[in-house]
Specification:
The complex is a heterodimer of chains A (110) and B (112). By secondary structure, chain A is mainly beta. In chain A, 0% of the residues lie in helices and 55% in strands. In chain A, strand 6 and strand 7 form a beta hairpin. Chain B has strands spanning 4-7, 10-13, 19-25, 31-37, 44-50, 53-57, 65-68, 75-79, 88-95, 102-103, 107-111. In chain B, strands 2, 4, 5, 6, 9, 10 and 11 form a 7-stranded mixed sheet that branches. The chains are: A mainly beta (110), B mainly beta (112). At the A-B interface, strand 4, strand 5 and strand 10 of A face strand 4, strand 5 and strand 10 of B.
């Protein structure tokens, strides 16, 4: 079983729609969680950290569910520029590395 | 500006040749990572440095791969006797303090 799993999508949504997707992680001893965004043939860029209480950054909302071992990302009022691959990232306790999921592709259409 | 410069941006090499990539953080970062990414996959961890100490290496990293960070600033990743399966994007990421990391633009390697 992979350490971090994501629904690859693609999620095709019209402009203005809300889209949400999850990521599950295998190790309950996880301490830090992030969402990164990656555009085609570019490097991953940090979108937001995910906090235990859930957090919001503009149109983006991230939630953490430790009991069920998943994190979620919700994008409201989708823009064409939100089209990208969203990578779920987990740092496990006593582990130096950041573990990445394979990504969820979102395509926003006009 | 990602705060991390990687060179070269692209590299085409013949199978069996050695290649070396360089990662230069623009400012001081105690944490430095190397990742590899192939199409349709997330970045795959290769190795981690804290200052000049290499603290973790992926079990997937064969003995043809070696990385250094001699003065705790820039880092190099060398691949010896390249194989076609080594073709990928090689990404360097840095961090300071908290766990998040920031990536350079990567070096795209093509082995022919």
């Amino acid at each position: 079983r992979k350490e971090v799993e994501q629904d690859p999508g693609p999620f095709n949504v019209p402009e203005g729609a809300t889209v949400a997707f999850n990521c599950t992680y295998s190790n309950s001893a996880s301490q830090s969680f992030f969402w990164y965004r990656q555009d085609c043939r570019k490097e991953p860029k940090l979108l937001m950290s995910v906090y235990s209480s859930g957090n919001e950054d503009g149109r983006f909302t991230a939630q953490l569910n430790r009991a069920s071992q998943y994190i979620s990302l919700l994008i409201r009022d989708s823009k064409l520029s939100d089209s990208a691959t969203y990578l779920c990232v987990v740092n496990f306790l006593n582990d130096y590395k950041l573990s990445f999921g394979a990504g969820t592709t979102v395509t926003v259409r006009a | 500006d990602t705060g991390v410069s990687q060179n070269p941006r692209h590299k085409i090499t013949k199978r069996g040749q050695n290649v070396t990539f360089r990662c230069d953080p623009i400012s001081e970062h105690n944490r430095l990572y190397w990742y590899r990414q192939t199409l349709g996959q997330g970045p795959e961890f290769l190795t981690y440095f804290q200052n000049e100490a290499q603290l973790e290496k992926s079990r997937l990293l064969s003995d043809r791969f070696s990385a250094e960070r001699p003065k705790g600033s820039f880092s190099t990743l060398e691949i010896q006797r390249t194989e076609q399966g080594d073709s990928a994007m090689y990404l360097c990421a840095v961090g300071q303090g908290s766990t998040e990391a920031f990536f350079g633009q990567g070096t795209r390697l093509t082995v022919v």
